[in-house]
Amino acid sequence: MRGFLYVISALAVVALAFWAYQQNYATQQALRDVRNLQNDIATQRSRLAVLRAEWAYLNRPDRLRDLAEINFDRLGLLPLMPEQFGLVDQVAYPPQPLLPITDPVETRAGPDIGPDTDDEEVQLP
Amino acid sequence: MIRTPLRPLARVLKARQTGENPDAIERENIRLRHEEMRDKARLRAQGRLLVLSVFFLGAFMTVGARMGHLAASEPMEPQARASGSQILAQRADIVDRNGRILATNLETHALYAQPPIMIDKEKAARELAVIFPDLDEKELLEDFTGKRKFLWIKKKLSPEQKQAVHDIGDPGLLFGTREMRLYPNGHLAAHILGGASFGREGVHSAEVIGVAGVESRFDDFLRDPVNEGAPLELSIDMTVQAAAERVLHGGMKLLNAKGAASVLMDVHTGEIISMVSLPDFDPNIRPRPPTEGEPGDSPLFNRAVQGLYELGSTFKIFTAAQALELGLVNQSTMIDTKGPMVYGRHRIRDFRNYGPELTVENVIVKSSNIGTAHMALDIGAKRQKEFLASLGFFQPTQVELTEAPGAQPLYPKQWKDISTMTISYGHGISTSPLHLAAGYASLLNGGTKVTPTLIKRATPQQGPRIVSEQTSKASADMLRKVVTKGTASFGEVPGYHVGGKTGTADKPLTNGRGYYDDKVISTFASVFPAHDPKYVLIVTLDEPTETSGPKPRRTAGWTAVPVASEMTRRMAPLLGLRPEIAPAAPAKVTLTSN
Fold first, then answer.
1. pTM of the entire structure?
2. Top-level class of domain B89-108+177-224
3. Architecture of domain B239-574
4. Residues in chain B whose beta carbon is closer than 8 A to a beta carbon of chain A?
C-alpha cells in the first residue's frame, strides 16, 4: 500500500512539473503576444497621429482657397457671403400634386369637342 | 544529560567532619546551576536576536534594493495588464473651437554624428553638404576631424533626408527619434499659437517646450500626462480667422499700411473668435527676435495685444455712455461745440466746425472733440478715471498669452483737467486694440464687464455691472447712427446692422515731443448687430493712406472702415449670423378716449 502511495505521489509530482512547465511557457508566449500587440498599437497610434496631421495640413485654409480658385470653372465656389442666405418665402416649392380623381365624371360632350383621346389618360386610383 | 546533585554525599560528609554547614554546599550548587541556566538563556536570546536582525537586515536590504532598482532603471509600461490607461508622454494638441487641429506633433528624427566611429569623414561631409544646402562642408569636416566625440548635425529631418543620409552609409552618422511640433496651417493664428522649441535634449528624445503665445502660457497643461492627451480648446474659429487674415492683409496692402491688427470678440462670453496681427510669421520656423530696429515692427510683435496705441475718437463713446449713466445728459441734450475750445495754453479743435452746439447723439455721430471734452469736464477727472479703470483700461489684459502681462497701458500719472479732456476723445492714453475690444464688449453686452479669453467657454461671463442696460442700449443706438449717417458710412453691411465709432490718431514722434503730420493710427471699433450686440470687431491700421482721391486721405472713415466692413461681410455669415431686417420699435398704442 505504502509503495503504491509513493508511486502515485511521484507520478503526481511529475505531472505537476509538466503542467507548471507548460503554464510557464504559455505565460511567456502570452506576454510576448501582448508586447507585440502593444507595439502594433503604438505604431498604429503614431500612424494615426501622422494621418491626422496630414489631414489638417491638406485641409489648411490656404490650400483649400487655392484649390477653390484653381477649380473655379468646374465648381464655381465662392466665399460665403450674406447674399447667399435666402428666406423661406423665396423658395419655389414644387406645385402641390393634384388630388387623385376618385369619382370620374363623364365629360365627353358632343363630337365637335375634338379627337377622343382622353380615355387613356384618365388614371383611376 | 548528567545532572549534578545539589547535595553530593561525599562533600556533605566531608563538611560534617570539618564542622562546616552542609547547606552552604547546596546553596553553592544552586548558585552554580542558576548561573549556568542564565548563561544558556542569554545565549539563546542572543541567538534569536541575531536571527531576527539578519531577517530584518535582509528585509530592509530587499526593500532598499528594489527602490534603488526602480529609481535607476528605465520606466516601462506594465506588460501583463490590459492596456486601459496608456501613458502619454506626448505634448497635447491645440484645437480650435470646432476641434480642428491648430498644433500637433509629428515624429521625426534628429541627426547626430560620432566622429570616432566614422569611416570616411571627407565623403560624409561632402554628401551631407549636398543633402543640406545650409550646412558648410568645411565646417563639418573640421568638426569631424577635431577633438569632438559627439555633435548634433540637424534637429529635424524629413523622411527623404533621412533616407539620403542612410544612403551615405557611414556608421558614425546616427539618428535619434524626435517629437516635433507641427502647425499644419502655417501662418494662421501665428501670434496666438506662438511656437515651440526643444528644451533638454537627449539622444533618444527631447523635451518640447512652448516659447510664446498659448504654447508657452499653457506649457504645464500641455505637458501634463494627467489630461490623457485631451487637447487644449481655443476660442478661435479657424475659418473666421483665415477669412479675417485674408481680408485684413488685402486691406493693409491696398491702403499702404505698414501693419494692421484686428480683434473679433463675443460680447457675452468674452471669447476671442479671431485675432490677427500683420505682418505675421510661420510658427513652424519661428524667426529669432530682432536685435535692431523697432521691436514693434518685427513680425513677432502682436499688435493686437502688445501694441499700445492712442486709439483716438473710439473712446468718445465711453465719455458719452458715462455722461448718460450719471444722468448728466440724455441723447438729445445740447452740448456746446463752439471752437476752438481754449483751456490754459491748449486749444482743442474739431476736424471741421460743427456750429455752436450739437445734441449728445450728434457729438458722437459727427465725432466732435469739443463736445466730448465739455461732457468730460462735467463728469470730472475722478469719476472718469474710475469708469475707465472699471473697463480695464489701466491694467494689462488678462488674456492667456505670455505676451499679455507686458502690455501695460500708458496713461498720465497726474490726471489733470486737460488730461480728462484729451482722454475723453482718446488722446493721451495708449491701450492695445484688445483693451478696446474688451471695453466695447463690456459697454455693449448689456453693461457687465467681460474679460477677454482665448479659451473656449460655454456660458456668458457674469461680470460686475458697469453701466445700466438702458445706457448700453443707448450707446449701441448711437454707434449705429455713426454708421447710418456719420463718419463711418462705408461701414454699413446690409443685413448686419453694424454700429461703430471711427478713430484717427496722429502717431507720436519717436522723440516723444508732438505728433507726425502724415502718420496716423486709424481704428474702427464696431459692433454687430447693433440692435442686439453679439460681436465686437476692432480693426486698426498702422499708417494707412488712401490715394484714390486728389489728396491722400488718412482718416479712419476712408481706411479702417471699408476694411472692417468687408471683414464683417465675410465673417458674419461664417459665424452663423443670417442677414436680417432690424426689428422695428413696437408700435405705440395711443389712448385716444376712454
1. 0.78
2. alpha beta
3. 3-Layer(aba) Sandwich (3.40)
4. 77, 79-80, 83, 90, 100-101, 104-107, 182, 184-188, 238-239, 242-243, 246, 493-496, 569-570, 572-574, 578-579
